[in-house]
Amino acid sequence: MSSRPQEPLARASGNAMAVRLARALPPARTAFVGAALWAGAMSLSAFLGAAHWATASHRGLIVAFFGCGGALAFPLALFVARLLTEDATASRRFAAILLSLALITAGLTALLFALDYRIYHSAGHADAFSRAWAVQLFFTTAGTVYQFAVIGLRLYFPFGVAALVAAGLWFALAAR
Questions:
Q1: Which residues form the domain of 35?
Q2: How far apart are alpha carbons 117 and 108 in whole angstroms?
């Protein structure tokens, strides 16, 4: 196993989980380049999916949300997949990155949409941190996530799925 700069502190503390977490951290270059590529792929997927029904201004916002969701998701998904597949077979690594990248990308993109809805509806909501505000925040977020699941997830097809399989093959076949 390769020794990384984060490992000595974790090894010195004797905490096996800290060592495993340190090993799962992806190299910064991989995280940044992968995030940029994944953001581009998710933006392209949203652009192709929304081209026939959204106006130009709405399409730009949708593409930006999907790109930001992809950029935020890639490093986290890569970390989760590396954490779950230390010393695993290629098929297990492929499955781990597919699952983590798909779920985290969709989840963070839905969260970005929920934040946007929250900003839009905030004028009609109660004072911050009150009980009514918490209920309104919960239901606004739940409604947004549902709406994203119904309307937004289809923008990942078919290009997003192809990009997901390509990322899965890269992760499964890449040497750690």
A1: 27-173
A2: 14
**Distance between CA 23 and CA 155 in Å, rounded?**
34
pTM (two decimals): 0.87
What is the rounded distance in angstroms from the CA atom of residue 110 to the CA atom of residue 124?
A: 22
> Cα separation of 69 and 95, whole Å?
21
CA dihedral 140→142→104→9, nearest 10 degrees, is: 80
Q: How far, in Å, CA of 96 to CA of 80, rounded? A: 8
Lookup result for tokens 């929250």: 118
Return the amino acid letter for 145.
V
Residue 4 within a domain: no
Counts for the chain of helices (H) and strands (E), in that order: 7, 0
39 is a domain residue:
yes
Could you read off the pLDDT of 29-73 as tens digits, one per residue?
Answer: 999 999 999 999 999 999 998 888 778 888 999 999 999 999 999
Contact 86, 102 (CB under 8 A): no
Give the integer Cα–Cα distance in Å for 15 and 113.
38
In the chain, the N- to C-terminal Cα span, in Å, equals 9
